[in-house]
Amino acid sequence: MTDQMGAWYQSERALGQVGPALTFRQITFGVVMEQRHATREIPTQIKNPELVEQRHRQIVDAAVLLFINQGFHKTTTRQIARSAGISIGSLYEYIASKEDILYLVCDAIHAEVELGVSEAMARASGGRSSLAEVIREYFLVCNRMNDHILLIYQETQSLPPQWRKKVLENEVRITGIFMEVLERLISSGELPHLSERSMELVAHNISVLGHMWTFRRWFLARHYSIEDYIELQTEFILGISR
Hints:
The protein is mostly helical. It folds into two domains: about 5-35 and about 100-240, Tetracycline Repressor, domain 2; about 45-95, Homeodomain-like (Arc Repressor Mutant, subunit A, Orthogonal Bundle). The chain has helices spanning about 5-15, 40, 50-70, 75-85, 90-95, 100-125, 130-145, 145-155, 160-185, 195-215, 215-225, 225-240. Helix 6 packs across helix 8 and helix 7 (about 130-145) packs parallel to helix 10. About 35% of the residues are buried.
């Protein structure tokens, strides 16, 4: 097993072992992206929420490149503070630990994916093209953020249990958006009836196929453009949802 796949496997195990499995019905989702809660969840000494959000974005932007290039464990909070252009003392006014920063990075990645997919749903013209539009936007976001997504799988096991659970909930929420599209198409008669279990499986297939571009890009990018990948995988997904 490669180091990359080993990290992915360990992360999957870590996520799977946090509490009972979540179902789609336990997660609230919709076309409009929910407000992110990470800024309020991370302990901070600053009372101004707008300033906290601004600083968190600043810290995330600095940390993500360091985590990708050096790895989470080899990156120090002092390096993050320096890259963010703030003092180490100021950094600790906005976060309590390096693990908090990793969680903020994961949350920012999920926010980008969720926003892109939700916007695709809002502008879709209806019918089966709605599903194709959502798949396309999701795969494009995965392509733009492939290093960031790989970072989640490599380093999620470094998070404390409460943050790992939040990351899992975010993953399920995004998959739930695909579930919602499928439910709409079935309700309108544009897809044949599928059981809830089948819809869940198709929704997870979409989610994992987007991630596959990240895990297998070392091979796929040599043989397919992202447009080729989107076209072929969309045909596959629409085929299994007939």
